[in-house]
Amino acid sequence: MRDHPVIEQMERTGYPYPMDKEYELEEDQTEEMECPVCSNEEIEDHHNFCKICGTEIEK
Fold it and tell me: What is the CA angle 49-42-29, rounded to 5?
């Protein structure tokens, strides 16, 4: 569980994750879209462009 992004962020910022407590961390619920130009399927919903080809994505 130490490889969870929230735990890594806490450790990077100097707030170690308290391993003596059990926390339920929400899984990333970000929906993904597909780029109409290069068919990249890993465009996160909060981005408005494709990281591979740079095409702007309309929501």
Answer: 105
Q: Give the separation between CA 11 and CA 29, rounded to whole angstroms.
A: 22
Specify whether the CB–CB gap between 10 and 17 falls below 8 A: yes
Mean pLDDT of all residues in 11-37:
66
Q: What is the band of 29 on the pLDDT scale with cuts at 50, 70, 90?
A: low
The Cα-based distances of 28 to 7, 12, 50, 53 in angstroms read 13, 19, 19, 24
Helices (H), the chain: 5-12
The C-alpha atoms of residue 55 and residue 51 are separated, in whole angstroms, by 8
Type of residue found at 25: L
